[in-house]
Specification:
The complex is a heterodimer of chains A (about 475) and B (about 100). Chain A is of the alpha+beta class. Chain A has helices at about 55-65, 165-180, 220-240, 285-295, 300-310, 315-320, 325-335, 340-350, 350-360, 370-380, 385-400, 405-410, 420-430, 435-440, 445-455, 465-475; strands spanning about 5-15, 50-55, 70, 80, 90-95, 100-110, 115-125, 130-135, 140-145, 150-155, 190-200, 210-215, 250, 255-260, 275. Chain A folds into three domains: about 5-285, no CATH class; about 295-410, no CATH class; about 420-475, Arc Repressor Mutant, subunit A, CATH 1.10.10. In chain A, a hairpin with a 4-residue loop joins strand 13 and strand 14 (about 255-260). The radius of gyration of chain A is 29 Å and the shape is elongated. The model of chain A has no long low-confidence stretch (mean pLDDT about 90). By secondary structure, chain B is an alpha+beta fold. In chain B, about 35% of the residues lie in helices and about 10% in strands. Chain B has helices at about 10-20, 25-45, 80; strands at about 65-70, 90, 90-95. The mean pLDDT of chain B is about 90. The chains are: A alpha+beta (about 475), B alpha+beta (about 100).
Amino acid sequence: MKNYEVVIGLEAHVHLLTESKAFCGCSTKFGLEPNSSTCPVCLGLPGSLPVLNEKAFLYAIKTALALRCTIQDLIKFDRKNYYYPDLPKNYQISQYDMPLAYDGAIEIESQESKKKIRVKRVHLEEDAGKLMHEAEKGVSYVDFNRAGIPLLEIVSEPDIRSPEDASAYLVNLKAILKYLKVSDCNMEEGSLRCDANISVRPEGAKSLGVKTELKNMNSFKAVRDALSYEAERQIDLLTSGEKIQQETRLWDEAKGLTIAMRSKEDTQDYRYFPEPDLVPFTVDKNKIDQMMRSLPELPQAKKKRFISDYSISDYDASVLTREADISDFFEATIKTYNNPKEIANWLLGDIASLLNARKVSIAKTRLKPGHLAEMLELIHSEEISGKIAKEILPEVFEKGLSPKEIVRQKGLKQIKDTGELISIIELVLKENEKSANDYKAGKKNALMFLVGQIMKKTKGKANPKIVNDILKNMLGGK
Amino acid sequence: MPDTNPIDKKTVEHVARLARINLSAQEIGLYKKQLADILEYINKLNKVDVKNTLPTSHPMGKIKNVFRKDSAKKSLPVEDVLRNAPNKKDSLFVVPKIIG
């Protein structure tokens, strides 16, 4: 059997984080009453004229520079013509032959080695409205609030060779966009969307196979699953001597397969032509240099710095630098509590679980770097055990109270007083004579049980190390 | 006499479908001729020597970088937005089913 190589190119669409739409002053806020954020411009009413949002343009340039693209000397917009009810003007203002920027790259780590995925082009366009279908009644509902929201399209070259690499590309792209603060990249709200082109070819072949276009993937996992399914489907067809149809296929998340969209009678024919309502745009070289210099430190550079400055693992550094919020929090905590590894463990462990469960970013919680530093200090000075720390963390997280204050209020301070501990231990030994005897007879596990009972009696406040020492001493076992 | 018209019946039908209009057989013949005339006229431009001419992407190409500041303004009241809608439900436009 022949071995096949998978060839993937991705097309990401990102909402830019502006207050108003790309060509009019309507709000871009998510979840407003349907059609309440529309006006003659974004509804395409006669006589209205678009004017480009400067911030959307600058965000697009900023992103293109971070993706190491070349900025087009003369930037113009074009009309992409098609009839669909989500498009009020019957054309979308987009860019055709002179995209805002081209020839960039995103680096990914593919099976331990670094790989460069080329970015073919980055262009600015407007989003379409939202359609909701009610099949039984034979109607669709249209909400134009999304129509006109600035959308950045980022197209990769077909340099991706596996579904895992496709996912890595998207993870890195999202991290970059979030560092730049140009998009919130919320896949659930549709502010980051992704289509994929995929084909397969016999290993070593130079020319590309027939590709299919995949749509409707609403999470990174969906992208990975859809691509895996589609690659397998195409390889199966070829090995059984069949041909691949060039077509658009929809990912069906529930069924876990891709389905061909009903083939259109006509091939797409968008009849692009220059948008006469918008004049051309240029960015002079000084401005580009200045923007280039003011780019923030990007995820990959930060990751490298974290590994060398803080001696943390490659994995920890990757996860910590994926979100600027987290890496900022990490570095702010280090300033008052200089133990990067411990801070990383808490951020990637208990704190990450709390954030995931509540689906919030750390910057939006009441947990501050000072709280974490203070709590780690309490553990370090043996005021509290790690277990107690885990218990009070949710409260610090919810209420923004200082860990010291919670420990004081609830009397959670560790019992270190030997006399006090001895009397508690004597009581526990009396209640658990059998285990005590087991230990003396050589059953080492019995000690763990006894420690557990002591911790239970003291509500976790006993210092485990001291308890261990006293116990061993009292039992005198081997 | 062979048909030398570069615009054939299929092309006219394709363009008509893209524009969502229905044409009678007679109209197709009419537009075949008219579109061919337009094409021929435009083709004259191909003969112009543009070696030393910069491409023009906009008739007002000298004016560049016209922007507005990013600030949200009041939108139209929803009742005005929907005023011309042939069919609506609550705040939504209603159109014939598209997918499915």
